[in-house]
Amino acid sequence: MQMIMDIGATVLAQLQKPTLSFLLGGMMLAALGSKFEIPQPVYKFIVILLLLKVGLGAGMSVRDADLLALAVPALAAAVAGIAIVALGTRTLARLRGVSPIDGMATAGLFGAVSASTLAAAMAMLDADGIAYEGFIGALYPFMDIAALVTAVVLGRMSAERAASQSVGSGGTVTLGGGSGSGGFNMNGDLVRGILVDTLRSPAISALLLGLALGIFAKPDIVYQSFYEPLFRGLLSILMLIMGMEAWSRLSELRKVAHAYVLYGLTAPLMHGLIGFGLGLVAHHLTGFSAGGVVLLAVMAASSSDISGPPTMRAALPEANPSAYVGSSTGLGTPVAILSIPIWVWLADMVIGI
């Protein structure tokens, strides 16, 4: 009973902080039918600035980081992304009313990372004075790319099997919705194509650019004078936008199976436990901090809201966006953000903060 009261008190305290309160405020505005709107170009600009800030901070920390200390969490992040997609193909993709390719696309988004959720968690840990490794932002691409590539490869394999069954043994199957450079075949070209598309996506490009500049340049002055002061203010606006978007996406779930609702509500917690467990392994092997374990759990619990949807739309055109975007943005993202206090509490209980 005391444990439940402690968790409740922690969650309530976090809900009163700007990050989560702005998210809930956005959901409230949308629920009340408010015409409040932030232009899409402004939203994109905010996201790019936040990702550049995370990448720059990670890059500057990587310069002085122990390679072993970085390698083990990076491997854990990649394993988490693959494991989450594999779990989704064994659960969601096999439920009644869920097509395999829709289930795999959804699992891919839940296995990938939400940059805004990661940024929110970092801001919350900073506010509470909880230390974590500066290179945490560098783990983002490892989990993100591993999950998206795994989901798309499995999705294309499922599409090939379905197409082969429909056209018979003598038919010719073209994957990827076209021929020539627009199509995919089941060899190295598929994986290479998805890797290229993912790395070229705005989110990953901005993050990797910031990471490279942080490592090879000396952006410390512009980081401290521009990116750092703007970070929390821009994040609060992003949370407001995400709250409104999350509420609007809830209506899309009415068009698809109720299985997505159950998955969207429970998967972030299950996935967070996977990330937390792998973070504990890294903690025991390399001394990975408790804050780092929390952030790895948050990344695993989050679902991609930037790089994932366009990647899935291009690579798996047969998949239903109402299913994978509605369940991830409409349910998965709010649950992931609201679960951050749980990982903080769990890390404090298991490791000590």
What this model shows, in words?
Helix content is 75%, strand content 0%. It contains 15 helices and no strands. Helix 12 (290-301) runs antiparallel to helix 15 (340-350). It is globular, with a radius of gyration of 20 Å.
Secondary-structure blueprint of this entry?
Layout: H1 2-15, H2 18-31, H3 40-62, H4 67-90, H5 100-111, H6 115-128, H7 140-167, H8 188-200, H9 202-216, H10 220-250, H11 259-286, H12 290-301, H13 308-315, H14 321-338, H15 340-350
Helix pairs in contact: 1-15, 2-10, 3-9, 3-10, 4-5, 4-7, 4-11, 5-7, 5-14, 6-10, 6-12, 7-8, 7-13, 10-14, 11-12, 11-14, 12-15
Q: Which keywords apply here?
A:
353 residues, mainly alpha, globular
Structure described in brief:
By secondary structure, this protein is mainly α. Helix content is 75%, strand content 0%.
| Structural class estimated from helices and strands | mainly alpha
Helix run count: 15
Instruction: Work out the radius of gyration.
Output: 20 Å
Q: Major β-sheet, in short?
A: none
Let me know the number of strands: 0
**Residues in helix, %:** over 70%
Strand content of the residues, in percent? Answer: under 5%
